[in-house]
């Protein structure tokens, strides 16, 4: 099991490596292998912060990271929370997208070692042989052509992706490199969601009961107002004002946690994907993509303590000392 398997545990080669290593999940769980704790963190961070990145002070080795993925799939199947599977798959895909960009664009190596992944390798992984460089060369193209069937299969919702807005010739749709990454994110999301939720036998579910409760408690601790009669950006808490400004800026990009916090906050205000995308604008493509998939407050927005833990509690003011959740702040500011 190598660094690529650790960063992309949903790759077929990672699944094979786990199979060839003869790993027995029941034994891992019974013995409390570190992959169980990392699997818990994987699911919990996915559901409360929109990322599966490890906490920087708690790095595990490549083997543990790979093994945490099948355990996370079991855990998320056991968690009793609306939209858990969909949110988990979306968060795995968001993190993969960020890693793809790091490796394709910056040639950055994983902290776990190994060569940077190539775009061709990922296209092969998802059987996207129908994606070709539009200029027919191998030299750093900025546009690609995608077979229309593949495009329709993977394109997210949203006006920008509608086929009528696209250049279409001989059954091929032209996309930018950034858009190709969005399509790959979608392919990852599909791969991760495939087969979930699992049917988990008792011999696995029983020893994981306490871990599942821990995840559910982290989701349930957030108490906050749940309905609002209007959207007033002037009443947003300082963190959301700052995240909105960053999302609209061409110069700054949001962390996965910041993107998740802002999108889930807007969803909790009752905004749909179109309204959220209009409010945010399209400077941050990943955020616009996430907002496009917003489903009316499906994902609970993070509490102030979670925002602090993920470094997205920004410029707290006097009112912040009296509340525990950004939505509580908003409800008070609206009065
Ligand atoms: S205390 Fe809460 S509402 Fe205030 S800035 Fe921090 S996260 Fe936002």
UniProtKB/TrEMBL annotation:
This is DNA primase large subunit PriL. Binds 1 [4Fe-4S] cluster. It comes from the Archaea. The keyword Iron applies. One of its GO terms (biological process) is DNA replication, synthesis of primer. It holds the Pfam family DNA_primase_lrg_N. SUPFAM superfamilies: PriB N-terminal domain-like (SSF140914). Keywords: 4Fe-4S, DNA replication, Iron, Iron-sulfur, Metal-binding, Primosome. Regulatory subunit of DNA primase, an RNA polymerase that catalyzes the synthesis of short RNA molecules used as primers for DNA polymerase during DNA replication. Stabilizes and modulates the activity of the small subunit, increasing the rate of DNA synthesis, and conferring RNA synthesis capability. The DNA polymerase activity may enable DNA primase to also catalyze primer extension after primer synthesis. May also play a role in DNA repair. Heterodimer of a small subunit (PriS) and a large subunit (PriL). HAMAP family: DNA_primase_lrg_arc (MF_00701). [4Fe-4S] cluster binds at residues 239, 304, 313, 320. GO terms for cellular component: primosome complex. Belongs to the eukaryotic-type primase large subunit family. Its cofactor is [4Fe-4S] cluster. It comes from Halomarina rubra. One of its GO terms (molecular function) is 4 iron, 4 sulfur cluster binding. InterPro entries: DNA_primase_C, DNA_primase_lsu_PriL. Residues 230-309 form the DNA primase large subunit C-terminal domain.
């Amino acid at each position: 099991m190598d660094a690529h398997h650790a960063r992309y545990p949903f790759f077929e080669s990672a699944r094979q490596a786990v199979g060839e290593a003869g790993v027995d999940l029941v034994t891992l769980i019974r013995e409390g292998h570190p992959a169980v704790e990392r699997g818990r963190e994987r699911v919990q961070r996915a559901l409360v912060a929109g990322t599966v990145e490890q906490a920087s002070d708690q790095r595990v080795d490549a083997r543990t990271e790979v093994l945490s993925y099948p355990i996370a799939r079991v855990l998320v199947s056991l968690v009793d929370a609306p939209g858990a599977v969909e949110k988990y798959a979306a968060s795995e895909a968001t993190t993969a997208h960020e890693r793809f960009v790091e490796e394709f664009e910056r040639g950055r190596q994983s902290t776990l070692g190994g060569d940077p992944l190539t775009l061709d390798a990922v296209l092969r992984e998802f059987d996207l042989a129908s994606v070709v460089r539009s200029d027919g060369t191998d030299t750093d193209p900025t546009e690609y052509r995608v077979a229309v069937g593949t495009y329709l299969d993977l394109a997210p919702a949203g006006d920008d992706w509608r086929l009528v807005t696209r250049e279409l010739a001989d059954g091929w749709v032209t996309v930018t490199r950034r858009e190709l990454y969005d399509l790959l994110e979608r392919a990852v999301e599909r791969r991760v969601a495939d087969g979930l939720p699992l049917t988990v036998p008792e011999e696995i579910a029983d020893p994981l009961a306490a871990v599942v409760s821990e995840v559910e408690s982290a989701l349930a601790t957030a108490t906050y107002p749940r309905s609002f009669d209007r959207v007033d950006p002037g009443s947003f808490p300082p963190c959301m004002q700052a995240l909105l400004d960053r999302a609209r800026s061409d110069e700054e990009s949001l962390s996965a946690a910041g993107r998740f916090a802002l999108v889930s906050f807007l969803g909790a205000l009752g905004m749909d994907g179109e309204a959220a995308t209009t409010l945010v604008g399209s400077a941050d493509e990943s955020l616009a993509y996430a907002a496009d998939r917003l489903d009316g407050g499906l994902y609970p927005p993070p509490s102030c303590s979670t925002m602090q833990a993920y470094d997205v509690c920004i410029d707290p003011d006097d009112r912040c000392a009296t509340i525990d959740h950004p939505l509580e702040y908003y409800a008070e500011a609206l009065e």
